[in-house]
Design goal:
The chain is mainly α. About 55% of the residues lie in helices and about 5% in strands. The strands form four sheets. A three-stranded antiparallel beta sheet has the order 7-8-9. The protein is globular, with a radius of gyration of 22 Å. It starts with a helix and ends with a helix.
Length: about 450
C-alpha cells in the first residue's frame, strides 16, 4: 500500500510539474507570437520598403520613422529578403511578405550584382551607386547573405530566377573566394573578386586580408539554406568542409572560437603582448560569447541537413561552447550574455572585457538554450532555467514598450542608448525574428 501511495504521489508530482511547464510554455508561445508579428514584422514592413530607388531603407529611428542615411549594404538587404520569405511561411498575410521579399530580390538582381565582374557589391548608395571602400569592395560575408536570402525566397516563392542567382553567387565564390590549398574562404575581396592577401603594410588593427570565423559561420549558414533547395554535390562538399573547419579548427581547445586567422588558419593572437596592446586589438582577438552560442546551432543545423553520422560529436562540441559561454559570459545579476571576454597570459579564468550586451547575442541565446534543453533535459546547467531567465531579461531590457521593436543594447547597463536608432546597416530584425521563429517551432513540438 505504501508503494502504491508513493507511486501515486510521484505520478501526481510529475503530472503537476508537466502541467505547470506546459502552461508556462503556452504563455511564452503567446508572447513570442505577438513579439514576432506585432513588435517586429508590423513595425518594419512596409515601413522600410524604398519604393523610389528599390530595396529597403537602412536607417530607422527609435520611434520607427524612416531616418536620413540610406547607404545600402548587401547583408542588410539580403536579411530583409530572408525575413520576409520566412514570414510568408508562418503568417496568414503570405502574399504581402512575398511581395516585400520580391521587392528586395529585384534590387539585388538589378542593382547590387556587379554586371562586369560578378559577385555582389558590399555597399551602394540609396540610389544604387557602388561605394568602393578600400578592402571592402566585396566580401565573402556579404555574398553569403545574398545566397541565404535568395535560397529562402526561392523555397517559398518558387521563383527560379532567384535560385539561379543564388547558384551564380555560389560559383562566383568558388572561383574567387574559396581557398583550395588551406580550405575555407578568403573574406576580403577586390572589386574583380581577387582575394586581398595580407602583408606588412596593413595596420595591425585592421581585419582586412585575414580569414575569419564570422564569414565562415555565415557561409555555413548560407550553404545549409542553399542545400535545402539545391542538393548539389559541390555544395555538400563545401558545407562539410566548413562544418569540419569550424568545429575542429576555428573552435579552440577552450571551447570558444578564435576570431581571425592567417591564410593557413593560424589564429591571430595578441595574448603574449601587454594589456595595452591587447586592448588596442580587442576587435581581432577576444572571446565573443554571442558568436559561440550562435555557431552551436548553425553547426547542428548543417550536420542534420548533411545527415552526418558524427552528429553527436558536433552536438557535444556545441554544448561545450554553450557551457563555456554560460560559465564565463553570463551576467549572474540581471541575466544575458556579455559582449566579450579575454584569457590574459596564462590565466585559467576569463576576464570580462566588455560587459555590454547586444541584441543579437541575446536572440541567438534564446534559440540555442532551448535547443540544448531539448537534447540535454537533465543536464546540470539547467538550460531551460537559463532560457526562462534570458526571455525575462529580453522582455525587461530589450523590448521597447514605448514604440516597439528591440533596443540595440541592454538597458540595464546602457540606458543612455534608449533613443538610438532601431535600424541601420548592421541592425535590422533578422537575428531576433529568426530566434523567435525557431523558439516557436521548438516550443510547439
Amino acid at each position: 500500500m505504501k508503494i502504491l501511495h508513493f507511486f501515486s504521489l510521484f505520478c501526481l508530482t510529475t503530472f503537476t510539474a508537466f502541467a505547470q511547464e506546459k502552461v508556462a510554455n503556452e504563455a511564452i508561445i503567446s508572447q513570442m507570437k505577438v513579439d514576432a508579428k506585432e513588435n517586429l514584422l508590423d513595425k518594419w514592413y512596409p515601413l522600410v520598403i524604398d519604393k523610389e530607388d528599390g530595396g529597403y531603407y537602412s536607417e530607422i529611428t527609435y520611434d520607427f520613422q524612416v531616418g536620413e542615411k540610406h547607404d545600402k549594404m548587401i547583408v542588410t538587404q539580403a536579411r530583409h529578403i530572408w525575413t520576409n520569405s520566412v514570414a510568408a511561411e508562418f503568417f496568414p498575410d503570405k502574399q504581402n511578405y512575398l511581395n516585400y521579399a520580391a521587392h528586395g530580390f529585384e534590387f539585388l538582381r538589378d542593382v547590387m550584382w556587379d554586371a562586369k565582374y560578378g559577385g555582389f557589391h558590399n555597399l551602394v548608395t540609396k540610389e544604387g551607386k557602388p561605394i568602393a571602400k578600400k578592402g571592402e569592395e566585396k566580401t565573402a560575408y556579404g555574398n553569403s547573405f545574398a545566397m541565404y536570402g535568395l535560397a529562402a525566397y526561392y523555397r517559398v516563392s518558387g521563383n527560379k530566377e532567384a535560385l539561379d542567382l543564388a547558384k551564380k553567387t555560389f560559383y562566383w565564390l568558388e572561383e574567387h573566394s574559396h581557398d583550395p590549398k588551406n580550405k575555407g574562404y578568403f573574406q576580403s575581396l577586390n572589386l574583380d573578386g581577387s582575394p586581398i592577401l595580407r602583408d606588412s603594410s596593413f595596420d595591425s588593427t585592421s581585419d582586412v586580408g585575414y580569414k575569419d570565423q564570422n564569414s565562415s559561420i555565415h557561409l555555413l549558414e548560407a550553404f545549409t539554406e542553399l542545400y535545402k533547395v539545391w542538393p548539389d554535390k559541390l555544395v555538400a562538399e563545401r558545407l562539410e568542409e566548413l562544418l569540419l573547419l569550424i568545429r575542429d579548427t576555428i573552435v579552440s581547445e577552450r571551447n570558444y572560437m578564435n576570431l581571425f586567422f592567417e591564410a593557413d588558419w593560424t589564429p591571430v593572437s595578441f595574448n603574449e603582448e601587454t594589456k595595452e596592446i591587447i586592448k588596442k586589438h580587442y576587435y581581432l582577438d577576444h572571446v565573443s560569447f554571442g558568436h559561440d552560442v550562435e555557431i552551436a546551432y548553425l553547426m547542428l543545423e548543417a550536420s542534420e541537413i548533411l545527415e552526418r553520422k558524427d552528429i553527436e560529436k558536433t552536438l557535444l562540441k556545441g554544448k561545450m561552447m554553450v557551457d563555456h559561454a554560460l560559465e564565463n559570459g553570463w551576467d549572474p545579476e540581471f541575466g544575458g550574455f556579455y559582449d566579450g571576454g579575454y584569457y590574459f597570459g596564462e590565466d585559467k579564468s576569463l576576464t570580462i572585457v566588455n560587459s555590454d550586451k547586444n541584441w543579437w547575442s541575446q536572440a541567438e541565446g534564446l534559440n540555442t538554450l532551448l535547443i540544448m534543453q531539448h537534447y540535454f533535459t537533465n543536464d546540470s546547467h539547467h538550460y531551460g532555467i537559463y532560457f526562462n531567465q534570458l526571455w525575462e531579461y529580453v522582455n525587461t531590457f530589450f523590448m521597447d514598450d514605448r514604440f516597439g521593436g528591440w533596443y540595440e543594447w541592454g538597458q540595464d547597463n546602457k540606458p543612455e542608448t534608449k533613443d538610438d536608432l532601431k535600424g541601420h546597416i548592421w541592425k535590422a530584425n533578422y537575428h531576433n525574428f529568426r530566434a523567435l521563429i525557431n523558439c516557436l517551432k521548438n516550443l510547439e513540438k
